[in-house]
Amino acid sequence: MNIETIITGALEENCYVVTLKSKALIVDPGDDFQRIKKAYKDYDVIGILLTHRHFDHIGALLEVVQDTQAAIFENSNLKEKIYQVGPFQFQVIFTKGHTKDSVTYYFKEEKCMFVGDFIFQGSIGRMDLEGGDEEQMKESLHKIKQYPDDIVLYPGHGPRTSLKEEKQYNPYF
Predict the structure, then answer these.
(1) Has this prediction a pTM greater than 0.90?
(2) Mean pLDDT across 150-164
């Protein structure tokens, strides 16, 4: 599985184009549709994974859907379980706190998670915006601590990190 990061928009949101064989998933198409399209143009896009619906994470969503006809996966149409979408297998984990609709996508085989604005390198997502909830954030952090240390975390902004690093150095853990 290959993961390409495309930094989009004024808030420098991380959109990810995840490819395997001839298929692709797009995580959080935030903005800059043409740059995102360039990354997936040689692939059959079979799904769009939304970690949450803040504007900086969905700015190019409509254009991507119109261009690819791909299914949207988000909190409102998912359950906490394992999904098989083409060659991709991932577990959905509800990680409320930054928003009520925050979702983490865990690719166990590849040892990676797309965490949106739930966790950042050395920090966590804001809880003072509409839908933010400190108690739910604590519960979500407790839930995520149960997963193996060697998982790479792909956040909605900033550099990737690892669960081990965050358990050791992130003051919120």
Answers:
(1) yes
(2) 98
